[in-house]
Specification:
The complex is a heterodimer. Helices cover 82% and strands 0% of the residues of chain A. Chain A is an all-alpha fold. In chain A, α2 runs antiparallel to α7, α3 crosses α5 and α5 crosses α7. The N and C termini of chain A lie far apart (59 Å). Chain B is of the alpha/beta class. The chains are: A mainly alpha, B alpha/beta. Chains A and B meet through α6 and α7 of A and α2, β8, α3 and α5 of B.
């Protein structure tokens, strides 16, 4: 293998690689953060909502989770333009990933919340808390401990799923890499490089998740 | 004097099944009332109606003279809003059979959560009060322990502190010792007894007949969703009138 040629190509294309990495990172971050917020709302609705809230939330989770992400990405991209929403490819892709992430977070949270004993809600009610307070101080902190490992997995999945945005022309890391390869034909080297960058991003997410997990496990002295 | 608890013609259904069939009873200030009866007689359901953990379908529950849970507007009986329900629930304190401590919090945080988040007390004041009540139930040394690090009896004593720190008008005990190992029952009963002696108003659902007899000012015997007999403990335990109560006492251990 001609290392010097590879390195000179990396240097020459560093702008595209960095830009692709930045897009991958940004779109994943948006999807994870926005998807988590939306997913928490959906998870609450499906677990504690009355029928008019529970059913749409249940339907949402089942349909979106059952749809291939690629289909979701393409649908969001073409439907949004068909109905006159002038989304860029990046915006449509970020939206698709957010919707996908939310369905997973919703389901993860539902599982965690349902594992908590009903007595927790009753104890919260008995001291005069409203549902908002019960969720915030009693249910959510406990559900978080259960859900965190699965949530990290879901976050890592989002980074991987972001590669699918290449098909609608978002110049994220994979598409950038492919464009570079089409010029220099260094298939193996640049795909390996892209793989290494994806690994680093996922590794970083797992480390962040673990450190959050460790902080949650520590015995609380002062919570409030 | 206004009774602390005033239950009038209380009816409650689970679907088709009527579990409370017109209950009337009162608890005056400082009174300790025990509710006894076989399982399925409706005693726990009655207790849970007193802090709106159960809805009820007819009748009134008044706590400190205030009708809770429902209001009648233009002839329609409607449930009051969530904030109102929460405020009314805080007028009573409840101790559960299975303790229901918050497992992710220290003993002290269990006690102070309601003080800071419901009563809006400053943190320092809440800790002061929390420590006071933990000391009162003999749990001050364990204030920083998690529930999982405490025995059942210790957890229940923290749960008592959590409920009573909110300064309720009446304390409700739902079979507070039923989930405990036999050797842990005594410490919890002693805690309840000493609170009763200090004049705390209490309603206890219990299977501890001897305790009910010793500590209560009044005993209520429930049978099939109704109060079959009520009165002084000496009278109910020594001279039961209804055949149902006579049969029940025969099968209960003292």
């Amino acid at each position: 293998m001609d290392w010097s040629y590879f390195f000179s190509e990396v240097i020459a294309n560093r702008g595209a690689l960095l830009h692709g990495t930045a897009i991958t990172f940004t779109v994943s971050l948006i999807a994870i953060l926005a998807g988590t917020v939306l997913g928490i709302v959906i998870g609450i609705a499906v677990t504690y909502g009355n029928k008019p809230l529970r059913w749409p939330a249940r339907l949402y989770i089942d349909i979106i989770r059952g749809t291939p992400v690629l289909v979701l990405v393409l649908t969001t991209f073409y439907v949004s333009s068909a109905v006159g929403l002038n989304f860029t490819a990046f915006q449509a892709g970020a939206l698709a990933l957010t919707l996908f992430c939310a369905s997973h977070v919703g389901e993860i949270l539902r599982g965690a919340l349902q594992s908590l004993s009903r007595g927790q809600i009753e104890a919260g009610r008995a001291i005069g808390l409203t549902f908002g307070g019960i969720f915030r101080y009693i249910l959510f902190p406990q559900a978080l401990r259960f859900a965190l490992p699965t949530w990290i997995t879901a976050a890592v999945e989002m980074v991987k799923a972001s590669t699918l945005l290449s098909v609608i022309g978002v110049a994220e890391l994979l598409l950038s890499t492919q464009q570079i390869i089409s010029n220099n034909f260094l298939n193996m080297q640049f795909y390996l490089l892209a793989g290494a960058i994806y690994f680093l991003i996922d590794f970083a997410i797992e480390q962040v998740g673990r450190s959050i997990g460790r902080r949650l496990e520590q015995p609380t002295r002062r919570m409030v | 004097m206004t009774p602390i608890v005033d239950v009038r013609d209380l009816h409650k259904r689970f679907g088709e099944l009527e579990v409370l069939k017109g209950i009337d009873f009162t608890v005056t200030e400082g009174e300790v009332v025990s509710i006894i009866g076989a399982s399925g007689s409706g005693k726990t359901t009655l207790l849970r109606c007193l802090n709106l953990l159960e809805e009820f379908h007819q009748g009134d529950v008044l706590i400190g003279g205030e009708a809770i849970g429902y209001r009648v507007q233009r002839g329609q009986r409607t449930r009051v809003g969530e904030r109102e329900v929460a405020r009314q629930r805080a007028m009573t304190g409840m101790v559960f059979q299975s303790f229901n401590l918050f497992p992710h919090m220290s003993a002290l945080d269990n006690v102070t959560l309601g003080l800071t988040k419901v009563r809006g007390m400053p943190r320092s004041k809440a800790i002061e009060l929390g420590d006071h009540w933990l000391e009162r139930v003999g749990m001050l040394e364990r204030r920083d322990y998690r529930p999982s690090q405490l025995s059942g009896g210790q957890q229940q004593r923290v749960a008592i502190a959590r409920a009573i720190a909110m300064n309720p008008k009446v304390m409700l005990f739902d079979e507070a010792t039923s989930a405990l190992d036999p050797e842990r029952v005594g410490e919890v009963l002693e805690t309840i007894r000493s609170l009763a002696q200090e004049g705390m108003t209490m309603v206890l659902v219990t299977h501890e007949m001897r305790f009910a007899r010793d500590v209560s000012d009044k005993v209520v015997f429930m049978e099939d969703g109704m109060i079959a007999e009520q009165g002084l403990p000496e009278k109910l335990f020594m001279h039961p009138e209804s055949p149902r109560l006579q049969a029940f006492l025969k099968t209960s251990s003292f």
